[in-house]
Amino acid sequence: MFARQQVADLTEIVAELDEAGVALAAIGSGTPEQAREFMAKFKFPGEMYVDPSLSVYKAFGLERGFWKTLGPASVGRGLKAMTRGFRQGGSAGDLWQQGGLFVLGPGQQLLFQHRNPAAGKQADLNAVLAAATAP
Amino acid sequence: MKISIIISVSVLLMWMVLLTGCIANGGGAMQDNATEVLGPMTADLTVNNLDNEALAVASLWEERRVVLVFLRHYG
C-alpha cells in the first residue's frame, strides 16, 4: 500500500524532475516479473530495478524488521493511506524491508538522504524536489 | 488470581505498545539534505534490470543526477 502511495506522490513531481534533467529510478526487493507487474499496474513513471538479495538496501543503511512494518505508528499511517484510497495488495518482495529515498550524482555526490524509520514514513517530497533541482 | 492475570497481561500489552511505538519511530532524525560524498559502500554492488541483467548500482548516478527510491515491497 505504501509503495502505491509513494508512486502516486512521485508521479506528481516527475514533470519538475524531467524539466531539471533529473532521472527517477526505483529499486524493489521482488523479482523482475513482480516489478514489471507493479509498473504496469501503478504506472511508475521512472526506471525500475530489483535487488532481491537486499544487499543494496543494506549498503544504504535501510531499516528492516517486523515491528517497523507492523508497529502501531505504521498501522496508523496505513489507516491514513486507506482514507486516501490506497489498499494493501498481495505481498511481492520482502515484507519487513523498509524503504528510503536518495538524491545522488553525478559522480559521488549525495544530495539528499532519507531512510524510512518505519513503514509509510516517507521523505518530504518538497525537500526532495529542492535537493534534486538545486544547481 | 484472575485479576492478577488480567493486570499482568494488561501491563505486558501496554509495554509492548510503548516499545513498538518507540522502535517504529526509530528516533526520527533520519533525514538530511546536506551535500555529502558517497563512500565506497556501493562500489561492488549490483542491481538487476527488468530483463534480469545485472548492472553496477553506481552506474545509476555516475553521469547524471537521479532521485533513487527504495520501495518496500510490491504490495
TrEMBL record, chain A:
InterPro entries: PXL2A/B/C, Thioredoxin-like_sf. PANTHER family: PEROXIREDOXIN-LIKE 2C, PTHR28630. This is AhpC/TSA family protein.
From TrEMBL, chain B:
It comes from the Bacteria. This is AhpC/TSA family protein. It comes from Desulfatitalea alkaliphila.
